[in-house]
């Protein structure tokens, strides 16, 4: 069981949890990129047929989040929320700064970027890039959270004094 969380504010850590795939975003773009490619194709980046990678079920974060009371806020990590809705989840005097290099982007997203010749910033606008859920945690509770959650989690950013924005830092190079 996790310790109890207080409200969130500047200095809190953004913890990312893996997605199982694209979830519900970007399928029109994916369809155009893989048009004419047999769905049974196994790309080395995937290790499974393309159809399995694309149709991986949207995972539920409830079993992780429900018993864990140290998380003060959480939200799905997707294109709408990164650029528009995340601020609604934040206190008015902070920015969420996300380091997009804090986790390894899964092979499916790298393959989509390469085949579609898509800029990194656009990839982060369209896809979850391997992070399906973001939790806000007091910095002093991060170690307890790592022990309480039975999977790898990523410290993807932090809340800083600011103007109620989400600020993703995107590497200029390909992912």
What does the secondary structure layout of this molecule look like, with pairings?
Layout: E1 13-18, H1 27-33, H2 50-54, H3 62-65, E2 71-76, H4 79-89, E3 94-99, H5 107-116, H6 120-126, E4 131-137, H7 142-148, E5 153-161, E6 166-169
Parallel strand pairs: 3-6
Antiparallel strand pairs: 1-4, 1-5, 2-4, 3-5
Written overview of the protein:
This protein is 29% helix and 22% strand. By secondary structure, the protein is an alpha+beta fold. A 6-stranded mixed sheet has the order 2-4-1-5-3-6. It is globular and about 50 Å long. Mean pLDDT is 82; it is low at 1-5 and 171-175.
CATH architecture: Alpha-Beta Complex
Helix content: 25-40%
Number of strands: 6
Roughly what is the average pLDDT, rounded to an integer?
82
Uncertain regions: pLDDT < 50 for 5+ in a row?
1-5, 171-175
- Secondary structure class reads alpha+beta
Q: Count structural domains.
A: 1
**CATH-wise, what's the superfamily?**
PurM-like C-terminal domain
N-to-C span: 36 Å
Order of helices and strands: EHHHEHEHHEHEE
| Content of β-strand | 15-25%
**Main sheet: strands, sense, barrel:** 6 strands, mixed
Q: Give the count of helical stretches.
A: 7
Q: Biggest sheet, strands in spatial order?
A: 2-4-1-5-3-6
CATH level 1 name: Alpha Beta
Overall morphology: globular
